[in-house]
Structures are given as structure tokens and as C-alpha cells.
Amino acid sequence: MNRTFHSEVGWWYGLIMVITAFLLFDFFWFHYTVLMILIAVAMVFEIEMLIHTCYIITADGRLRIESGRFVPNIEIEVSSIVSMKRVKSFSIAPALSAERIEIVYRKGGKERTVQISPRRAEDFKAWIQKKMNVDNKPNVE
Fold it and tell me: Which domain holds residue 22?
């Protein structure tokens, strides 16, 4: 059975959407066509991420991170997760909140990181630990 966790949406993401909507209306009102089209495209990306950013723990032990149609999905073997810790960041990531979980995992012989912001972080961590082997539990902070 797959388990889906939607992204937490922070106040700053809402603020970005309000500013973008205001600029879109302003450029439409004053007939700045090129700027209006550019802002409309940005608004489509923002809405797409808002609707489609989610984290799916699959029945076969994978974590699939989806951020919409325009951003490639990330797929991680749950058994390859080395550690998870809470971080606060505004960096570009498949997360719509500043309160995030940083996941360190191994892929192709290298350690990689990804930051996500599931709505119920404690439930998310519990599901990840449930999917892990007993001798390969991630370091959860």
C-alpha cells in the first residue's frame, strides 16, 4: 500500500503567490503584454507546484518525490537513506515550507541530499522507519 504525504505550505509561498497575482493583474491592466505573459507563466509554475508537490512512500520500499509536471520526479530507495534531520531553509527544493526534513541517501556510490516538507512530518518519519530494515535504520533527529 502506498502512503502519500502532501507538502506543508509556508506563509512565504503564499506571499509569493499573492505578489505574482498582483503583478499579473497590474501588467494586464496597464497592457504590458510581454511582462504579463512572463508573470502568467511563473504563476502557472507556482500553482502546479502547489497542487502537485507530494511525497509517496511506495509498497516496494521507495520514496517518490513529485513536484509537478515541469520538474523531474526524484525516486529514492528507502533502504539507501542514511539520515534524516529537521532543518529550516529557504533554498530551492521540492518543499513549499521553510520547515523541512533533510534526507541524506546513497545513490551511485555518492551521498546526496534532498529537502522535503511533508505536512505531518512525524507520521512521515514513522512510515520511513517502518519501511527500513532493522539493521539499516536511518539516523532520525
Answer: 3-140
Pairing of strands 99-107, 3-6: unpaired
- Tens digits of per-residue pLDDT, 29-48? 999 999 999 999 999 999 99
Sign of the Cα pseudo-torsion (138, 57, 98, 94, in order): positive
Question: Cell numbers 502546479 label which residue?
Answer: 48
For residues 94 and 65, is the Cβ–Cβ distance under 8 A?
A: yes
Count how many domains the chain has: 1
Pairing between strand 62-67 and 139-140?
unpaired
pTM, full prediction: 0.84
Interhelix angle 11-29/33-52, rounded to 10 degrees, is 150
Is 58 within 8 Å of 131 (Cβ atoms)? no
> Residue 127 is which amino acid?
W
Secondary structure element (H or E) that encloses residue 75, with its range: strand 74-77
Which range of 21-35, 60-74, 91-105 scores highest in mean pLDDT? It is 21-35
